[in-house]
Amino acid sequence: MRYRQKGRSPCGEGKLKIEVVHSKLLSELERKRIVAFCSRAYDEDMEPVFSTFADATHVLGFYGGSLASHALWITRDLQVDHLPPLRTAYVEAVATHPAHRNRGFATAIMRRLAIEIQGFDLAALSPFDVRYYTRLGWEVWQGPLLIRTRNGLQPSPEDEVVMILRLPKTPVLDLTRPLSAEWREGELW
Ligand SMILES: CC(C)(COP(=O)(O)OP(=O)(O)OC[C@H]1O[C@@H](n2cnc3c(N)ncnc32)[C@H](O)[C@@H]1OP(=O)(O)O)[C@@H](O)C(=O)NCCC(=O)NCCS
User: Fold this and answer.
1) Is the distance from the beta carbon of residue 69 to the nearest atom of ligand 1 less than 6 Å?
2) pLDDT tens for residues 135-160?
3) Residue 89 has pLDDT above 80, yes or no
4) Number of structural domains in the chain
5) DSSP type of residue 157
6) Cα-to-centroid distance, 73 and ligand 1 (Å)
7) Which atom of ligand 1 approaches the CA of 97 most closely?
8) Amino acid 54: pLDDT
9) How far is the CA of 169 from the centre of ligand 1 (A)?
10) How far apart are CA 142 and CA 133, in angstroms?
11) Higher model confidence: residue 10 or residue 37?
12) With contact defined as beta carbons under 8 Å apart, do 157 and 115 qualify?
């Protein structure tokens, strides 16, 4: 998959070329290719999940002109206790093509993503592996996780794990306090 350069920000990262593109700038074909790429990486149909990602920004890593690694962020409002909500870059769909794994591609994508989201109050994600993100500077939220619904706060299952990344605008945080996110369709975290 090749992309037009207009309105995008390509950058060399070793042999991986990284582009950051808002979903609004993607053609339907490009969007479908990204969904197919992630479906292959996750070994499941990602279309239903992607259809819930309004306003996503994709970080795309190309190797030899083909998509090799990907992550995206959406905007969510996370709230510590009853403190003002934090405008949060919530990371999803971190994926590397099976043929290109263990070469640092997802690491490069996540590092670039962290640079791109500096204007947010916070970053968060639900990790596949805590150690993987710990070495990239992410921290496990230790307090209870809750979802804000029309009927009030609903606790998340005990085994739910959320990690956060502090950004320049992140206020002082107590990671042991309750953390809530707005309800959304599909995976709540
Ligand atoms: C997870 C994934 C994105 C990593 O991509 P990658 O480009 O190979 O990652 P990197 O090269 O930056 O890092 C590789 C490291 O991650 C580790 N790793 C990869 N998958 C892992 C897993 N499921 N559990 C624990 N560690 C894992 C590797 O062992 C390697 O560790 P090392 O550097 O100590 O040898 C890729 O394996 C993938 O697409 N997996 C399927 C989709 C998925 O699970 N995504 C994560 C959702 S949060």
Assistant:
1) yes
2) 999 999 999 999 999 999 999 999 99
3) yes
4) 1
5) P
6) 18
7) 39
8) 83
9) 29
10) 15
11) 37
12) no
> Would you say residue 89 lies in a domain?
yes
Count of C-beta atoms within a 10 Å radius of residue 62: 18
Does some domain include residue 47? yes
The CATH number of whichever domain residue 171 belongs to comes to: 3.40.630.30
Range of the domain at 51: 11-182
Q: Is residue 24 part of a domain?
A: yes
> Of ligand 1's atoms, which has the minimum distance to the CA of residue 127?
48
State if residue 44 touches ligand 1 by the CB under 6 angstroms criterion.
no
Q: pTM of the entire structure? A: 0.92
DSSP 50-75: HTT-TT-EEEEEEETTEEEEEEEEEE
pLDDT at 161 over 90: yes
Q: Using a 6 Å cutoff on CB, does residue 109 contact ligand 1?
A: no
As a whole number, the mean pLDDT across the chain is 93
Domain assignment of residue 21, yes or no? yes
